[in-house]
Amino acid sequence: MSLKVAGQRRGEWLELMPGRLPVPEHGGRYEAVMAWLHNELAAPPKLLKTLEAEGGIKLAGDRLRLLLFPPKQSSFEPMGTPTEILYEDDFCLVVHKSTGIKVHPDGESREPTLANQVSAIYAERGEKIAPLHIHRLDEYTSGPVLYAKNAYAQLKLDAAMARKEISRVYVALVQGIVSPTLRIIDEPIGRDRHHNQRRRVSPSGQRAVTHVELMETLNQASLVRLTLETGRTHQIRVHLSYAGHPLLGDALYGGSTKLLPYQALHGESLIFAHPLTGELIRVDDPWPQEWLRLREQLALS
């Protein structure tokens, strides 16, 4: 996708200026515009087909308009305090997910989820926007979560996620002193047939790769930065436990809950290409306050 692609929102429409386009031998200016949308904008074919059928593509002189921002009511009830926004534009939203909050309802609990908190943002503003999450975090993992604010962004970001082009960096407090030589854990992960919730390293599992960087050693604990090549369920928790360094608080994988009642895992940053412009966007999420207190406690003990 061209990094020079830029547009301006006009109400429900995105206005683009594709400039002079070569007209194909069999076709006119409309066909030239459609080819530009495919080749330069890399617009999802599924979306273009829908826009064509609904009259959502308009040409007026040098201006091209796409109906990308129709009002949409969220299916999630606005509940709880609106969550902190880390980044937002017309296409993307990145919010902070707190520890102990689920990304979306599971049908069992009536406690507000991140989806409800995001819905509350737009209910407060009186805007009919229904963002959809692009990735998830475990209930007790804090950090940034990326949302798409329209169908165009959703299709582009979902595809980027499938191609592993969205980078997520985590930090964790783990038990024991991690060796600086532990740089990569490349072990397949599968289900644990003895425990419904657990995963385990298994030769028959899916490939899983975690990159490890030792940041600091504390009293009987280490602070590590982790980058994922793959995104398996509980990947970091399984891999670090397998390496002999379960996360502090992670009772499911052998971690002690003496200092923390849940796994000490936080999403530190999120890096993705903007679905329209291709610009690389990095969103950082500061460490939770309880982490700062725990780190100080470990350093002094």
From TrEMBL:
Residues 93-241 form the Pseudouridine synthase RsuA/RluA-like domain. Transmembrane segments: none annotated. Coiled coil: none annotated. Keywords: Isomerase. It comes from the Bacteria. Belongs to the pseudouridine synthase RluA family. The active site is at 138. Responsible for synthesis of pseudouridine from uracil. InterPro entries: PsdUridine_synth_cat_dom_sf, PsdUridine_synth_RluC/D, PsdUridine_synth_RsuA/RluA, RluA_PseudoU_synthase. One of its GO terms (molecular function) is catalytic activity, acting on RNA. The keyword Cell inner membrane does not apply. This is Pseudouridine synthase. It catalyses: a uridine in RNA = a pseudouridine in RNA. Its EC number is 5.4.99.-. It is an enzyme of class 5 (isomerase). GO terms for biological process: enzyme-directed rRNA pseudouridine synthesis. The keyword Isomerase applies.
